Amino acid sequence: LPDGRSPDRAAVLPPEGGGGAPERDFTLREAVATGAFRHLALAAAVGAFSHQLMLQHLVANAIDQGITPKVAATLMSVIGLSNIVGKLVMGMISDRFGRMRLLVFSLGLAAVMMFWLFLSRDLWMFYIFAVIFGWAYGSWIPMYPALVGDIFGLGSVGAIFGLVLTSNFVGGFFGGFLTGYIYDITGGYGPAFLLGGALLLGGVVSVLTLKVPESMVPAAGGRYE
b/e map of 45-74 (b: 16 or more CB within 10 Å)? Predict the structure, then answer.
């Protein structure tokens, strides 16, 4: 059984929580035709949009607010450390409490922090952003491959997740590029931060409205949460 679950727990826990398995495996073609795949791919894209705009432009924005380049660069170290902790801790929590609800929490938390970044002027505000946003985007990274397996089975998990990851890369490209373009035409990063926060809220809605394909809903009374 996956994740060391005992047979009695496997009968009642949803596949998302690691306690069961879908009725059958979807092929790549079948998965792409479902709304669940599109919702998951959209959430991955908007998440990448926000974290790439942050990775590429956070230091420059902090410098624009009067923080010295040497100090501003330390923000990336804080984000990196927080990101590692988020991956480890939230990945383990999601195995127990359900990945979709944790993904909603992570995307929503990141959205709040993008709006916080829009208001940030002092160094302490930037450090709070670095800690919380780093945690949030680190925590959703292990969710996607696990959710692909939970929803579509393991038969084509590599191919399906590869396509979800492609949408992630597309979102990341536009996050970095569009933020730079917005800065060039407006002279500031504020509109890009607001856009990133709004898109993350769209990702939250996308996950909340994700419907597991009916043929994959477990027959033993389990449910996705």
Answer: bbbbbbbbbbbebbbebbeeeebeeeebeb
pLDDT (0 to 100) of residue 91: 83
Alpha carbon distance 200, 136 (integer Å): 12
Q: Which two tokens stand for residue 80?
A: 């990196």
**Closest Cα partner for 120 from 177, 195, 194?**
194
What SS3 class is residue 47? helix
Q: State the Cα–Cα distance between residues 117 and 98, nearest whole angstrom.
A: 29
Residues 6+ apart with CB under 8 A from 107: 43, 46, 47, 136, 140, 200, 203, 204, 207
Q: Which two tokens stand for residue 135?
A: 């945690």
With a cut of 50, which residues of the chain have pLDDT below it? 9-20, 217-225
Residues 6+ apart with CB under 8 A from 35: 210, 211
Q: Answer whether 132's CB lies under 8 Å from 109's CB.
A: yes
CA neighbor of 170 nearest in space, from 80, 41, 56:
41
